Amino acid sequence: MSQSQPKCGFDRKMTPEEINRLPLKRYGGPVYLVRTEHELDAAIRRLKRETVLGFDTETRPSFTKGRTYLPALIQLACADAVYLFQLSHLKFPAPLRELLAARSIVKAGVAIDRDVKELKKLGRFQEANFVDLGGIAQHAGIQNHGLRGLVALFLGFRISKQAQRSNWGRRDLSPAQVKYAATDAWSSRELYLRLKEAGYLKAIRQQQKAAAPKETRAAGPKHIEPQKDVRELNAAQQTGPEARP
Q1: Rounded to an integer, what distance in angstroms lies between the CA atom of residue 186 and that of residue 67?
Q2: 56 close to 183: Cβ distance less than 8 angstroms
Q3: Residue ranges per structural domain of the chain
Q4: Quick one: residue 220, left, alpha or beta (phi over 0 = left, psi -120 to 50 = alpha)?
């Protein structure tokens, strides 16, 4: 009896070569640059109506040893648009910090701990309801944890990273930078919705709740290793030839 082949993303990582064979996709909806108080007010009013936002930041790269920069851009994607907050114009205004602290709105992204840490150097806020999709994947036993790999695995397309190391501190972003930044935030939101639909978020939360001691459950869930219900979800995801839902 022959053994089944390892499934990419589940039994093994989806390789760069496999990802590169997928179709390239970019966000095609409206993108709003937010640089003035009037634009800020309009953006915050719109985003407050959402329950799930895709989240990301961009920082000017440093090519000099010992020199670092703080975030220059915050991207927030809602159901029908992406908003790019240029911090070189806005600084880090209170309405934006309040939005990131809103418990009623999920902010979903990948590797967000560092983003939040760096943003706090620009202004004080207490983050709430941030969901690290890479962490969810790791706890569920999925082998790809980065945004590009997870998008390929669950959404079936690849996203470009060509503008990642460009100068995000410039006053006027290029069209390529705008498209790149919008795509990252949009794909983070789409990925969150797919993982939620597939049951990963519910399974992880149930395990965290069950594993936490009674006296500490009120303090919030802890990270744990995936158990049976998550492994069953993984098996259900592996029915197709590309190991994607």
Answers
A1: 30
A2: no
A3: 16-237
A4: left
Six-digit token string for 118: 């760096």
pLDDT tens digits for 21-40?
Answer: 999 999 999 999 999 999 99
Closest CA relative to residue 112, chosen from 67, 164, 71, 168 = 71
Cα–Cα distance for residue pair 106/133, rounded to 1 Å: 12
**Domain at 16-237: CATH code:** 3.30.420.10
Token couple for 202: 């519910």
pTM of the model as a whole: 0.82
48 half-sphere exposure, CB direction, 13 A CA radius: 13
Please, what's the b/e burial string for 211-231 (b: 16 or more CB within 10 A of its CB; e: otherwise)?
A: ebeeeeeeeeeeeeebbeebe
244: confidence class by pLDDT, cuts 50, 70, 90 = very low
Q: How far is CA 179 from the centre of its chain?
A: 16
